[in-house]
C-alpha cells in the first residue's frame, strides 16, 4: 500500500546470519533496516504491514514496513510528539492510546489511523491518562493494561475499549502494577509479562499474570526466567515470545518463549544486538524485531533482526 505515503525505501535483503548458540532453539538473520531510527514507540501489526508510531526524541512520522515486499515507507505524521504510547490494530484501523508528551506527562488521548486513507481521527479518550503500558485484543475489544501516570508512577489500570461503540469500561485491575511490560493475547486470554516498578529498570520484574475475560479474573503464570522490562513481545504458534529489555546500565540479549498450555518457558538464541524500547511482529513463521535502543537509556536505532524459530 503506497497511497498517501511520502516515499518508499527500496528493500535490501538479508544482511548477515547468526547461528543459534549451543542447544538454544532458533537462529537469527539480518533484516531490512528502517529509514529512520526509533525507540520507545508503539509497534503494531495489521496483516502484512507493521506500523511504528511515536519516538523517544520526538519524531512524528509513522514508519510502515511491508512485510511481504520487505520495504519501508514513511507515512503521515502523528498529530503531536509522543513516546511510550500503546497501540492495537483492528479491522484495518490502527488505534493509538495515551503515551507521554512534554517530557513525562501521561495523556488520555486516543487516535485512530484509517488504514486506507492514512488519515488520523480522534476517538473517545481513556478513562485515565496512561503511558508505557500494553494493549491486546480479545473478541473485538481492546484491553489497555498496566503502565504509568505522569511522572512514571505505576497504575493498576485495566481499561477495555469497544471500537464499534467508541466507549470504555473498567475491568479487573492488573494485580502487579508495572510499566514497560509485554502484553499479548493468546487463545482468548491476555498475558502480562515482566515490566518494571515506577519506570525504574533497576527494579525489573519476572512476573507473569494471565487475565480471563470470561471471569474477569487474573491468575499467576510461571515467572519469566530473566526479570526484565522494555521488552518486545509477540505471539507465534500459541506461544509468547519475549525479547530484550534493559537495566539502568545494560541492555538484554535474552530471548525466551512462554507456552501457556504447559506453563513453561524455553530459552532461545539471544538477540544479536541487545536492545530495549522496541517491538516485534510475525510474518510467515518468523519474528521480526524492529528498531529500539542498543544501549540503556535514550538511545535509538533503525535495526531489524529476524528470529527463525526451531522450537522443540
Provide the fold topology.
Layout: E1 7-9, E2 17-18, E3 27-30, E4 42-46, E5 49-53, E6 61-66, E7 71-77, E8 86-90, E9 93-97, E10 100-101, E11 105-106, E12 110-114, E13 120-123, E14 134-138, E15 141-145, E16 158-162, E17 167-170, E18 182-186, E19 189-193, E20 196-197, E21 200-204, E22 208-212, E23 217-220, E24 232-236, E25 239-243, E26 255-259, E27 264-267, E28 279-283, E29 286-290, E30 304-308
Antiparallel strand pairs: 1-7, 2-3, 3-30, 4-5, 5-6, 6-7, 8-9, 9-12, 10-11, 12-13, 14-15, 15-16, 16-17, 18-19, 19-22, 20-21, 22-23, 24-25, 25-26, 26-27, 28-29, 29-30
What key phrases describe this protein's structure?
mainly beta; Neuraminidase; 5-stranded antiparallel sheet; 30 strands; 43% strand; disordered N terminus
Total strand count, please?
Answer: 30
Average per-residue pLDDT, rounded, comes to 92
Q: Can you tell me the residue ranges where pLDDT is under 50 for at least 5 consecutive residues? A: 1-23
CATH homologous superfamily label = Kelch-type beta propeller
The major sheet is characterized as: 5 strands, antiparallel
Count the helices. How many?
0
The domain count comes to 1
Keywords: Kelch repeat, Repeat, Signal
Pfam families: Kelch_1, Kelch_KLHDC2_KLHL20_DRC7
InterPro entries: Kelch-typ_b-propeller, Kelch_1
Protein name: Kelch repeat-containing protein
Amino acid at each position: 500500500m503506497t497511497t498517501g505515503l511520502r516515499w518508499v525505501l527500496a528493500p535490501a535483503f538479508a544482511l548477515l546470519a547468526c547461528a543459534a548458540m549451543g542447544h538454544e532453539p532458533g537462529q537469527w538473520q539480518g533484516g531490512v533496516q528502517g529509514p529512520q531510527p526509533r525507540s520507545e514507540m508503539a509497534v503494531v501489526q495489521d496483516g502484512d504491514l507493521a506500523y511504528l508510531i511515536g519516538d523517544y526524541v520526538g519524531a512524528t512520522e509513522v514508519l510502515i514496513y511491508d512485510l511481504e515486499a520487505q520495504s519501508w515507507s514513511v507515512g503521515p505524521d502523528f498529530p503531536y510528539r509522543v513516546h511510550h504510547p500503546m497501540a492495537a490494530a483492528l479491522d484495518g484501523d490502527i488505534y493509538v492510546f495515551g503515551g507521554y508528551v512534554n517530557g513525562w506527562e501521561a495523556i488520555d488521548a486516543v487516535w485512530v489511523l484509517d488504514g486506507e486513507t492514512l488519515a488520523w481521527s480522534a476517538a473517545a479518550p481513556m478513562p485515565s491518562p496512561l503511558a508505557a503500558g500494553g494493549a491486546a485484543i480479545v473478541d473485538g475489544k481492546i484491553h489497555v493494561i498496566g503502565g504509568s501516570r505522569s511522572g512514571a508512577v505505576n497504575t493498576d489500570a485495566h481499561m477495555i475499549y469497544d471500537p464499534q461503540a467508541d466507549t470504555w469500561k473498567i475491568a479487573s485491575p492488573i494485580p502487579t502494577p508495572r510499566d514497560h511490560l509485554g502484553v499479548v493475547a493468546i487463545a482468548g486470554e491476555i498475558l502480562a509479562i515482566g515490566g518494571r516498578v515506577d519506570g525504574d529498570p533497576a527494579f525489573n520484574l519476572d512476573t507473569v499474570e494471565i487475565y480471563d475475560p470470561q471471569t474477569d479474573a487474573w491468575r499467576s503464570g510461571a515467572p519469566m526466567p530473566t526479570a526484565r522490562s522494555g521488552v518486545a513481545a509477540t505471539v507465534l504458534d500459541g506461544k509468547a515470545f519475549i525479547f530484550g529489555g534493559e537495566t539502568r546500565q545494560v541492555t538484554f540479549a535474552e530471548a525466551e518463549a512462554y507456552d501457556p498450555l504447559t506453563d513453561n518457558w524455553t530459552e532461545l538464541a539471544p538477540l544479536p544486538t541487545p536492545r530495549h524500547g522496541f517491538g516485534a511482529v510475525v510474518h510467515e513463521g518468523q519474528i521480526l524485531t524492529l528498531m529500539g535502543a542498543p544501549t540503556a537509556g535514550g538511545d535509538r536505532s533503525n535495526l531489524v533482526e529476524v528470529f527463525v524459530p526451531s522450537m522443540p
